[in-house]
Amino acid sequence: MIVKTRFGRLMMAAMACLLAACQTSDMLPLNSDPDLVQGRLDNGFRYYLAPNDAPAKRVYLRLVVNAGSMHEDDDQRGVAHMVEHMAFNGSKHFKGNSVISALEDAGLKFGIDVNAFTDFENTVYLLNLPDNRPQTLELALRIIADWAAEVSIARDDLDAERGIVLEEWRARLGPMLRLGDKKSAIEMAGSRYATRDPIGDPETIRQVSGKRVADFYRRWYRPDNMALVASGDIDVAKFKAMVEQYLGAMPTATTPLETVDFGIPLQDGLRAAKVHEVGAEEPALELSFFSPLESDYSRAGYRRELAEQIAGRMLNLRLQQWEKQHQDWLLSGAFFSSAIGRETRQSIFTLQLKKGEYHSAASALFDLLATLKQHGFSDKAVASQLKRQLKLEQRRADKAVYSIDIAGDLVTTAANLDPWLSYKDRARLNLELIGSLTTEDINQALARLTAPSSRLLLQTLGAGEISALTSAEANALWQQSMSRQHSDFEAGQQTAEMPEFKAEAGSSRFIGEAADGRLKEYRLSNGLRLVFSQSDLNPGEVHFKALTVGGMGSLAPSEAQKLRLAVNLADEFGAGEVPQQAIINYDSDYPLVLSSLLDGQTQGFSGWAHRDDLAALLQLFRFKLQQVQFASNALKHWREEYQATRAQYANDPGEQFARTIDAKRYPGVPTVYNPDPELLTTLTEDELRADYRRHMLGNTDFILFFVGDIDEARLIRLAEQYLAGIEVKSEARKQYQIRPATPKERLQMPVSGEPRAETEVYLTSYPQPWSAKQAYQLSLMGELIQEQLRLKLREEASGVYGVTAWFWQEPGEDFSSGRISFSSDPERVDELIQQLHLVLKRMTDEGVSPHSLENKRRQRQDRLQRELKSNLGWLEAVSQSYMTVGGPQQIGQNIRFNEEVTAAELNNLLKQFIRQSRVFEAVMLPASE
């Protein structure tokens, strides 16, 4: 189960409340969506039913309980979360864990389609139904009705679940969590939030009585404090009748619903504070502005909120430019504004620093805010942003709205009792209001974001740092910045513009169709193949790939690392001679996206754009092929950042553990955790550019793939103009294979600062010739093994919160691999590893369960079919098939493999894998005292 621990409110409700077209007065309230059926049953239970057929036959259900950790008494800290767990451990109609089995039999996957989370204010249960058959809907509503009123909190089940909840608590422990808790304690000081972490208090989890758990359940799980959200392909009238049948029988509450104090005291003035946590020592500076969260559902309120959102986007664009002026001490800067708690708003600037120069960072940030206060955004900048926003909204209005997104938004509405209107009305209102916004409106919105007098300068100290700004020093800096006159930031900026690529046009000829007409193949006059698939799934959107064989696997490991670095530096600069800022400044409502691709066996480039901007994208692609450029001192800055990161994580136990595992499995081989020392010392930018030219620009024998909403004739004209003139080059390439070593002795590292053990078990099976079918069966086998390990280690032994198992084989490898990992109480490591091997032996001896296999096949079938229905999924399947076998033969093959796989085949593969596998165990333990 997911636990959200820092920001209690699910999401801000602004932008979910929209105007019907007939309204004219700024003070009229926003109307409701006529397509949404909402109401209350006689017992007070609320429902929100949103019919939507994207995708067809799918339904998404959410039970929203307006009770979280903020509703707990002092002796119940963690009980809201425990109740959520107990809902899956027995109810009136589903004994023990049978609710999970029932849902998996219906085609849902636990942890993905079946889940729940507890936060400060709410508990939400999620069911993503694979179909809309009456029996599936009835099963889901019967389960939801049990969750709402019939959970059995049996003593034995509760005692068993304590161990699982404690393991979830244990798994969360770490420097980043403690750092976040320290920040929250300062930001939320004086409120209940500061003492109500949703995961709970471990001692309470161990000792709380079943009576007190049941008290919380009966006190807050009542019909007038819950709601059902249903979004999907439903017959509303029939579904409403089912809701009344299953949820209308809950007895009406006879006492008033108790109130909870969600307030966070706001402290006037600018205060400074510092936090430090060993293991999370990346220096940072955060400037927050706190204010009461006000909900104004009028047209005027919506317009103000829209202006503030646009001002926030412009702030982030300004910060991107500002970063480049301070690269000596600044890694990145960002701004966002959201709810913190149910009744408070936080607008926050976050600076990630290279070093702890808090005085300089605060002074520079205050100067930026003073500049914005004095000059605001220019007419030109606002007009450009509004133009882009207007076009975005115009195209967004044509996009399909998916049921899962509607369900997520309606959870917010149900949790906060907000009004709701349709996405169509939202788009219509946005289009209308964006056209009415002025530079003055945006600058007033900008001023509102930084106007609150309750301000906090929070400094995260790096390793070895002890000094930071005091409140008095921060106020003095603020006054200095605000009292000085600053020059306009925009006045000194040079506008980078994208040049036009002069291309010599070529020609093309049609080769034929494939995949039942979904693919059209052409041959350009330079010999390159072009594969096109027309799709209006995302109106106006076109995705592009240019791929050739090669990739990281075609180079020795040290050379592959150099090329990876060269690719990163080249992409950071832009496209050939065109800097990133010129691409950002390009007059387009959709961003132009183009980046290098470098994986195991293929390489090339990918991008996407609106069809109206496809010519610009293809020109960028040609610039990319023409030359390689890096930003000034790019390698120097990369080394500084890398060394700073390595220094920060030098004593990080997890980093040490991963580095040691890599060193033992790949001795002498450069890896991500153990890079080639040359990268950090003698390598030059000229050498990196030469590597890029040789390996990336020297291999242009691409297959070109296009998927999207563009007329075929128009695409071919653009391809003839910009792609048929590419000089086709290639170099001889071979594939390197790196086989992992398998140490015989278990690696045990007592280095962790947490009271838990991290266990990883690696399995490598030789020989295993690669085939696409076997690779698919290995991944399916991994899911079946993971399910059996979950049942044994979690449900029976109560020893882990979760366990993961991956089994795979990459093309070209003559071995297959497996990895199983979990965290646990250190005292139980040997026991749990022994149980793990017993599960593998039992499955090898007895085979996989045909029932479990059928469930996994059904779950996967739905996912595989949905992947092929998306543009990106289809592009991936098409390009993968062409790059593997040179044509479309393998498109959709995993669907066929999934349909045809038998228990006998999996049993043979499992036996072969386990009996031939070499096993390496690695355990990170708490450091000795």
UniProtKB/TrEMBL annotation:
Residues 50-169 form the Peptidase M16 N-terminal domain. Transmembrane segments: none annotated. It holds the Pfam family Peptidase_M16. InterPro entries: Metalloenz_LuxS/M16, Pept_M16_N, Pept_M16_Zn_BS, Peptidase_M16, Peptidase_M16_C. Residues 1-20 form the signal peptide. It comes from bacterium 19NY03SH02. GO terms for biological process: proteolysis. Residues 209-384, 683-859 form the Peptidase M16 C-terminal domain. This is Insulinase family protein. PANTHER family: NARDILYSIN (PTHR43690), PROTEIN YHJJ (PTHR43690:SF17).
